Amino acid sequence: MNSLLLLPGDGIGPEVTAESRRILDALALPGLAISEAPFGGASIDAHGVPLTAEAEAAALASTAVLMGAVGGPKWAGVSYDIRPEAGLLRLRTAMNVFANLRPARCFAALASASTLKPEVIEGLDLLFVRELVGGVYFGTPRGIETLPNGERRGFNTQSYTSSEIRRVGVTAFELAKLRAGRVCSVEKANVMESGVLWREEVTRLHAERYAEVELSHMYADNCAMQLVKAPRQFDVILTDNLFGDLLSDLAAMSTGSLGMLPSAALGEAGKPGLYEPIHGSAPDIAGQGLANPCASILSLAMALRYSLGAPEAADRVEAAVEAALNAGARTRDLGGTLSTRGMGDAILAKLGA
Ligand code: NAD
Ligand code: IPM
Ligand code: MN
């Protein structure tokens, strides 16, 4: 039997996850057990840590995990190693979800909702494959120290091994074969040795196994500029943990709003995937019913497709989101007036139609 663990988290996390839950209930998938656990700040409040051993075990035992978002000013004072975001990093590591798929797709109805010109983003359909369990987020040594002269030094280590690069590269090339067949690998080989190794390993993997895919390389700073100038030049962007974080938020605006971008974090075949909107807990709008639930609902669709063996249900959910947008349904971030619940209602109505 399939099982889905919901980790609503903090801020707007529970608000958007509630709408995904309603979609899930409407789908009434046979043989799917749904459970829920506190995560992030909510778990700190209840249990003193952002991810309990029980919640971690439940995630590892599930077929898929759908997360909301974690963090917020309420937990700004907790010790750094148990902050809400540390719980998320720990969960990603425990699940070993090394490949983070972040599709940036501009729905036709939203071409004028972006701050970019419609003619630049109409038809945009690109996929980030972001390495998620390595790089500077996890490298050691790391810390803050006081030097003999009294100065303080904060330091982190950017580090990648060849196998870490190759396994996420395989994901990017395999997905490119199902799309337009182009991978752009993004690093800063001009200033970082980890970038040099990244480029060498991706080039070697391509030559060994994926000659039918077109491979190009780009420095991350240029990529940021190209994503604003001409984002449709890209099919799959393969990049590291930190650059993938920055560039996917940047590209989110080409889809109309950060509230539109879903994600799927995948590890070894047969292991559970971790699904979450790419946005955070949005403390500035939390508790007001203003959040756009589309990124969460589209993340649920990715869970249905990649973990739960229900691709038809995934298609239905994505079609319902598109139909609701076509009918003019918009939350405030998209220039509309609907509440989170109102947007959920509009999508539910199309799901039933
Ligand atoms: P954020 O993504 O929470 O918000 C950035 C801006 O986008 C805000 O103005 C917010 O209102 C808006 N926004 C985000 N999601 C939206 C939605 N669904 N609908 C409408 N508007 C939306 O980023 P931040 O403010 O830098 O971070 C807030 C907290 O969230 C921090 O604690 C951060 O660490 C955390 N965070 C968590 C995750 C995660 O859980 N995966 C991701 C990013 C940030
Ligand atoms: C994201 C977030 C996380 C990240 C944080 C909250 C750990 O920004 O999922 O994009 O940096 O990966
Ligand atoms: Mn981010």
TrEMBL record:
Top enzyme class: oxidoreductase
Main location: cytoplasm
Gene Ontology CC annotations of this record: cytosol
Cofactor note (record): Binds 1 Mg(2+) or Mn(2+) ion per subunit.
Pathway it works in: Amino-acid biosynthesis; L-leucine biosynthesis; L-leucine from 3-methyl-2-oxobutanoate: step 3/4
Protein residues bound to Mg(2+): D221, D245, D249
Annotated substrate binding sites: R92, R102, R130, D221
Annotated positions for site Important for catalysis: Y137, K188
Keyword Magnesium: yes
PROSITE patterns assigned: IDH_IMDH (PS00470)
Residues reported to bind NAD(+): 72-85, 280-292
All residue ranges annotated as the Isopropylmalate dehydrogenase-like domain in the record: 3-347
Similarity-based family: Belongs to the isocitrate and isopropylmalate dehydrogenases family. LeuB type 1 subfamily.
Subunit structure of this chain's protein: Homodimer.
The protein, known as: 3-isopropylmalate dehydrogenase
Gene: leuB
